[in-house]
Amino acid sequence: MKTAILHLFVLFTSLTLDAQKALSISFVPTIDHASIVLDSNYQYGDISLSISNLKFYISELALFNDDTFVANVGKQHHLFDAGLPTSGLISQEMTEPGAFNNIRFNIGIDSLTHSAGVFEGDLDPIHGMYWSWQSGYIHFKLEGTSPACPTRQNKFQIHVGGYQAPNNTLRKIILPVVTSSTLNIEIALDKIIQRIFGQKIFQMMSPGPTAVALADIFPQIFQIKK
Amino acid sequence: MIGLMSFTDIKDIRLPYPDHFPNPTFDFQKTPLDSTKILLGRILFYDPILSKDNSISCASCHSPYNAFAHTDHDLSHGIFDAIGTRNAPALFNLAWQKEFMWDGAINHIDMQALAPISHPGEMGSSINEVVSTLNASNAYKELFQKAFGEKTITGAKVLKALTQFQLTLVSANAKYDKVKMGKDSFTLQENNGYLLFKKNCNTCHQEPLFSSYQFANNGLPVDTTLNDFGRWQVTGQTKDSLHFKIPSVRNLSYSYPYMHDGRFKTLREVLNHYTEQKIPLTSNEKADIIAFLLTLNDADFVFDKNNKYYKIK
Question: Would the CB atoms of A125 and B234 count as touching at under 8 Å?
Fold first, then answer.
C-alpha cells in the first residue's frame, strides 16, 4: 500500500478544538479548480467531456497528531456521490478531541470488510458499487461521455476496484491540516482525466494492473483548500 | 435431526447437523439463524419476482428435487431462453463453504445472489430493481417487517434472507451418514467401494462433506466451444488454469449431469474419465465405487418439505 504525505515541506502547528465543538469536513470534486456539476460540459485543454457519475468510498476517516490517533470522524465507510450534494459533507461532534495536525482516510474498502458478507447503508449493493460477477466493491467510479471516446454512445466508464494482492486498489491518504473546525478537501480530478484520456482507458471494469496504476494517482488528487 | 426445523417464531435456531460433521465455516455467532428470515428467504428463492420479466426464480435452475441443481441441462437456462456457460451446481451444505461458484469468484454466500439477479442471461434484473419491486408489495413489506423489524426493504436484507434459507439446506442423512451414526451398515460391495474411494478419491472429495472445497484440475480437457479456464480467470495465475471447485459427491443420483459444464450424464462416464486419468480401476472396482457413491444419496434432504416451494399468501 502506498502512503503519500502531501506538502511535507511545510511545518504545521497542531490545533485543538474546543470541547463540544463540531468538526465538519467537506469534499469537493473539481476539474481545473472548478467544482463539478454532473452532466454539464467541460473543456479541459483539448478534451471536452461531461461527467455523469462520480462515486467513491471514503473510509476510516480519522484525526491524527503526527502518528498518534486522536479521533474518528463520521461512519467507518462513507459513500461520496457527486449526485447527492449532502454526501460530500462529513461532520462529527467532538467532545474532547485533543490536538491534531493531520487527517487520514482510505479511498476504498478494506479487505476484511470485502469478504465479510453484505452490509446495510453505504455498503448496500443497491448503490451500484459492488461487482456482481466476482466479489468486490468498486472503490472509485467515474463515468461520463466525451466525443474523444470511440466507445458506444461515446461513454467512458472507469470502475476502480480490487482488494487482493497484487491488485489491491485501496489507497491511504494523509493530509496535513491547519487550524479550523471546517476542513475543505478538494478532489482535483485533472490527473485522473489526463491519465484516462492520455492512455485511452475508456472502459475499466475489473481489477488488474491498469486499475492499480490509476489508484496510485489517488493520493495526489486530494488537497486541503485554503 | 434434519426435518425437525419448523417455521414457528423461534429465533436463533441452531443449524442441524450430525456429530460426524465438522463445524460450519459460516459465522453463526455473528449472523444467527432466525426462522422468520429463513421463511422469507425461502419465499424469495421460489419467487420469479427476482427476475426482469417475472419468469425465472432461483429454483428454476436450482430445483429441490435435484438437490437444488438443474437436471437434464448441461448448461443452465435463464431468462429469454439464454444458455449460460456452466452447469448449475447442487446447493447443500453451503454453511461449510467459503468460496462460491465453480471458480470461487464469489467470496461470501450473501453476495452470491447478486450474480444471477444481475446476469443478463440469467434473471436479467438488478438488485435495485428487485428492491423497488419488493417495496411496492405490501405482502413483502409485512414479511420483511416480521423478519427484520423494519418495513423498508434494502438490498442487504434481501441478500441476508436468501442466505438464511440456503444455509438451512443441510444434506446429512444419506445411508453413509446412518452408517456413521451406527444406524445402518454397508453391504460388502458398498464397503469395498468405500475403501477404494478412500484410496483414490478422498484427497479431493473429502468425507464427510465429500469435498475439501479446494480447487483442482481433475484432468478434463478444455471444451473449446466454451474455453472456460476456471479458477485462473479469478486469480490470474497460470497454475490455476483448468482448476475448478471440487464438488461434493453427495446426491449424485439427483444432480446429473456432472462437471462444471455438465459433460457427463452418467457415473459410469465419470469413472471412465478417472481411469483414463491414471487412476487404475477394474470394471468391478468401478461398479463398487458407484455402489458406494449411491449411499451418498440423501432422500430425506431431497424430499424435505421444509425446503419446498412456499408461496407468499
Answer: no
Please answer yes or no on whether B163 and A117 come within 8 Å at the CB atom. yes
pTM of the model: 0.90
Residue of B27, B37, B114, B231 to mutate when probing chain A, most A C-beta within 10 A? B114
Q: Are A179 and A159 spatial neighbours (Cβ–Cβ below 8 Å)?
A: no
Structural domains in chain B plus CATH codes: 2-170 (1.10.760.10), 175-300 (1.10.760.10)
State residue B7's pLDDT score. 42
Sequence spans of domains, chain A? 2-224
Please answer whether residues B312 and B43 qualify as being in contact, where contact means their C-beta atoms are separated by less than 8 angstroms: yes
Are the CB atoms for B210 and B250 separated by under 8 Å?
yes
How many residues are present in chain B? 313
The residues with which A68 forms a beta bridge, in sequence order, are A65
Note down pLDDT in tens along chain B; length 313 residues.
343 444 444 456 789 999 999 999 999 999 999 999 999 999 999 999 999 888 899 999 999 999 999 877 777 666 666 666 789 999 999 999 999 999 999 999 999 999 999 988 889 899 999 999 999 999 999 999 999 999 899 999 999 999 999 999 999 999 999 999 999 999 999 999 999 999 999 999 999 999 999 999 999 999 988 889 999 988 888 999 999 999 999 999 999 999 999 999 999 999 999 999 889 999 999 999 999 999 999 999 999 999 989 887 6
Judge contact between A133 and A47, C-beta under 8 A: no
Q: Do A119 and B106 touch (CB under 8 A)?
A: no
Give the pLDDT score at A179: 65
Predicted confidence at residue A20, as pLDDT, reads 56
The per-residue b/e assignment along A12-32, b for 16 or more CB within 10 angstroms, e otherwise, is eeebebeeeeebebebebbbe
The C-alpha atoms of residue B66 and residue B251 are separated, in whole angstroms, by 8
Question: For residues B223 and B264, is the Cβ–Cβ distance under 8 A?
Answer: no
**Per-residue model confidence (pLDDT) at position A10:** 34
Which residues of chain A neighbour B159 with C-beta distances below 8 Å? 118, 125
- CB contacts < 8 A, A to B, total 62
Secondary structure of residue B216 in the 3-state scheme: strand
Q: Which residues of chain A have pLDDT under 50?
A: 1-19
Q: How would DSSP label each residue in chain A?
A: --EEETTTTS----EEPPTTEEEEEEEEEEETTEEP-TT-EEEETTEEEEEEEEEEEEEEEEEEETTEEEEE-S-SEEEEETTSGGGGEEEEEESS--EE-EEEEEES--HHHHTS---SGGGSGGGS-B-SSSS-BEEEEEEEE-TT--SGGGEEEEEEE--STTS---EEEEEE--S-SEEEEEEETHHHHHHHHHTT--EE-S-SHHHHHHHTTHHHHEEE--
B149-188 as b/e, with b when 16 or more CB fall inside 10 Å?
Answer: eeeebbbbbbbbbbbbbbbbbbbbbbbbbebbeeeeebee
- Bridge partners (DSSP) of residue A50 are A41, A145
Residue B241 · residue B230 · CB < 8 Å: yes
